[in-house]
Write a structure and sequence with these properties.
Order of helices and strands: HHHHH
Strand content: under 5%
Shape: extended
Radius of gyration: 20 Å
Number of helices: 5
Structural class: mainly alpha
Distance between the termini: 38 Å
Largest sheet: none
């Protein structure tokens, strides 16, 4: 009986934990995403002059991504390939703008270290 109670309590605890984890996940606003991204840019050692410019680039990029997603949802035709192509286009545009502001060394760190850490991690891999 005691063993069954402990198993039930453990299962309940696990279920509640996963429920809270799912509830706390909400889509971040472009401003929240920009703030989170800027916090991860430490390895780039941005100057005081670069920081607001880089922040503006990310904010514009995230706003464009959100607008694009909303347009696809509103049209009722969510095409994964079209969305991937649009995101690639937006990322290329963002990187071009970053390249105009960052040094060559910073851009290399961005591509090699920081950008991969921003990609969503796939579960189960």
């Amino acid at each position: 009986m005691k063993k069954q109670f402990l198993m039930l309590a453990a299962a309940l605890l696990l279920g509640i934990t996963s429920l809270f984890a799912q509830q706390n996940y909400q889509r971040q606003t472009p401003e929240e995403r920009t703030k989170a991204t800027m916090e991860k840019l430490g390895p780039l050692n941005l100057t005081e002059e670069q920081t607001p410019k880089v922040s503006a680039i990310f904010l514009a990029s995230y706003q464009a991504q959100e607008k694009s997603m909303e347009e696809m949802r509103a049209s009722g035709s969510f095409d994964r390939d079209a969305m991937r192509a649009k995101r690639t286009e937006l990322n290329d545009s963002r990187d071009k703008a970053l390249k105009a502001i960052l040094t060559e060394e910073q851009m290399k760190k961005w591509k090699d270290e920081v950008e991969p850490s921003l990609r969503p991690q796939r579960r189960g891999q």
